[in-house]
Design goal:
The protein has 93 residues and is mostly beta strands. It has one domain. 12% of the residues lie in helices and 37% in strands. The strands form three sheets. A three-stranded antiparallel sheet has the order 1-2-3. Strands 4-5 form a two-stranded antiparallel sheet. A hairpin with a 2-residue loop joins strand 6 (79-84) and strand 7. The longest helix has 11 residues, at 49-59. The mean pLDDT is 89.
């Protein structure tokens, strides 16, 4: 029985290729769902690729194509290298 109301159900594919179903609730944020559409009894942990995919999707404008959320890995900004004491150098920017 569905009890979540307030946002559309979305599908997203994480960086490992796993497909996730979630409710895009406007006030509670993304709520991961089971394949039957019910909320999961245990949410994915904070290091789960689901959160990285959803956070990137939110920050990139929430694009959708063929009923799947579209997101991309952000480009790295550069590598930080310590020079001396409190001084650092950002390479590759």
């Amino acid at each position: 029985m569905r009890f979540l109301l307030g946002g559309p159900d979305r599908k997203i594919i994480d960086s490992t290729g796993r497909e996730w179903l979630f409710n895009d609730h406007p006030r509670l944020g993304p709520i991961p769902l089971t394949q039957t559409g019910n909320s999961m009894s245990r949410e994915p942990g904070p290091r789960s690729p689901f959160w990285k995919a959803v956070n990137n999707w939110y920050s990139q404008g929430k694009s959708i194509a063929d009923d799947v959320c579209i997101w991309q890995e952000p480009e790295p900004e550069g590598e930080v290298r310590k020079i001396d004491g409190r001084y650092y150098l950002v390479e590759g920017v």
